[in-house]
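Prompt: I keep going back and forth on a fold encoding question. Comparing notes only helps if you start from a blank page. Show me how you would write down a chain together with its backbone fold. Please set it down just below, with no commentary around it:
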Amino acid sequence: MSTPLIQLTPYDEFNIALEKHVHPRDWVNPKPDRPYSLVVIGAGTAGLVSAAVAAGLGARVALIERELMGGDCLNVGCVPSKGIISSARVAATVRHAGEFGIESTGEVSFNFTAAMQRMRRLRAHISPADSAARFKEKGVDVFFGNARFIDNSTIEIDQHGNHQSIHFKKAVIATGARAAAPPIAGLDSVKYLTNESIFSLTELPSKLGVIGGGPIGAELAQSFARFGSHVTLIEMGDHILSREDHDAARIVQQQLIADGVEVVCNSRNLSVCAADHGIRLTGQQGSESYDIVVDQLLVAVGRAPNTDGLNLDGVGVEFDKQGVKINDFLQTTNKRIYAAGDICSPFKFTHAADFMARYVVQNALFSVGPFGRRKHMDLIIPWATYTSPEIAHVGMYEHEAAEKGMQIDTYIQKFEDVDRAILEGTTEGFVKVHVKQGTDRIVGATIVAENAGDMISEITLAIKNGIGLSKIGSTIHPYPTQAEAIRKLGDQYGRTRLTPLAARILKLLMRFNVGS
């Protein structure tokens, strides 16, 4: 019998269905009789894709997971967070329905318990794609238990005291990362939430504290405020989403405040302790002190790589607090062992792990002959933060271009001048594109919009395939759409090509044509 370390709560019909897919209690590990071409440790996105691709190409593959298949993304990350974000957006839309001429004669209330139940139902509905049964059908041998390297060709699996050894030719570490407590005074004295536990809530906290204004903190702070919690978000920097374009982050911060989030930036000397009716947060904001008591506390800062128990030292795999060290080809310091995903990447995104996994299979198993090896740093990785509005980015920021000594031109299209955005009441935001100076070659872009995560793909495609702003400007986009903002940037670039000399020539040609 195999029981996951993470216990799903509440243990209702939806979490029972989820568990049956991603860590069946009656699962019996296979008993292999020969080595595997590839053993993958960790069944999050990087591990699942590595195993599926390798098995699909004919390799003999084993996949080892100690907790829940699907990893953070399915269980405690992308899927549940976007589930509750969607409910929170509807709640916000209903509250502002009067702006669109919609009148309600009755009081509208929000049922947090039902929203969380909806999230669990949809998560369970999605989970068969990551299930043990599905990967077994793909030809992957699925093992549950704790994996530990014994030597350069052997991994031991401990399933509740039952030890089993399997042998490999190549291995991939895809164990990801987990929430880690930051060094905050008194934090270890209280029971706090992380992304691994907040989705188990069934009752809405009246007062929620959030430490950390990064993507997780910003998304969940806004969502819980829209649900009706009084949310206080504490951030050490001078604004939330500190890694993003400052103009973009400012717009999102203003919206969080409009949604009722109390944002405390420039926080110093934060300490935490238990209070009579919750958790007390004290600190300084500039020259002022603050003293806040909350019912629940979400810590949304700090991640640690899952390297414990793998015996990486024993097989010569170097790692540090940031994760496993890899070369350009995703190979660790042990040439037979590779890594992919959050365990080794600075890009902690599901889609980044997906494409790293595709490269790792090619490099580990098919790097000879016509295939060759692929460098993971060649990947062009966009990302999005799913606040309202969303922020999406790809390529370089302005400061990164400056650090590399690259001269750039920047084009900005505000949504206040885009008809569809005006009609939908979503004029706060912009598309900002950086091009190499004197050219239309795109080197980076940021979008702030309700659906920025969808819009950024057009620019990502352009960067990857060398499509410049001029070609985007000459491509017909449907009217009216918010994506028309991207085409308008092409028009902006086109106008810069109309030099004074070219303008004079055009006037002469026009005069000639009119005269004839």
